[in-house]
Amino acid sequence: MNEQTRNLIENLMAEYVSFIDNDELEQWPELFTEKCLYSVTNRENHAQGYAHGAIWANSRGMLKDRVSALREANIYEEQVYRHIGDAVRLITLENDIATVQSNFMVVRTMHTGEIHLFATGMYLDRIRIQGDTALFEERIVVCDSQKFDTLLAIPL
Predict the structure, then answer these.
(1) For the chain, how big is the Rg over CA atoms in Å?
(2) The dihedral of CA 13, 151, 46, 144: what is its sign?
(3) H or E element that contains 12
(4) What is the pLDDT of residues 70-127, one digit of tens each?
(5) C-alpha closest to that of 52 among 153, 124, 128, 140
(6) Is-above-0.90 flag for pTM?
(7) In the chain, N or C: fewer CB atoms in 10 Å?
(8) In this structure, are residues 149 and 48 in contact, taking their beta carbons and an 8 Å threshold?
(9) Residue 121 near residue 152, CB atoms below 8 Å
């Protein structure tokens, strides 16, 4: 992978966590192609090939709807995330599509000040590179734990 491609991918990843961690969720869907896949699942279900997860969306429009629901309809305890990740590993780069993997840890801070290790796992991504733009075509969030907290409201 050349330096420009690596920079585009790393910037995309940085924007992704920044939009979530800084409560700029309205910008989050813009990091995805119009037709995309975003899924949050667990390691066991992913290994068995199950397509659906705790969160599943197959278009940017569905991602925007999720954000709208979070802002206007859903009621959940006030909380913030802080993502901690590692370096991106390139698996393949073919026809302007980079397949990459990276690990993550999400710490959740509640409105009470309580801090919890909320989720750990890996991102499996297909990223479309076009000129000086990189967008997620697919982001599969594979959590290590089989259990999902009932407060999984904000995207991971």
Answers:
(1) 15
(2) positive
(3) helix 3-21
(4) 888 766 778 889 999 998 999 999 999 999 999 999 999 998 999 999 999 999 999 9
(5) 140
(6) yes
(7) N
(8) no
(9) no
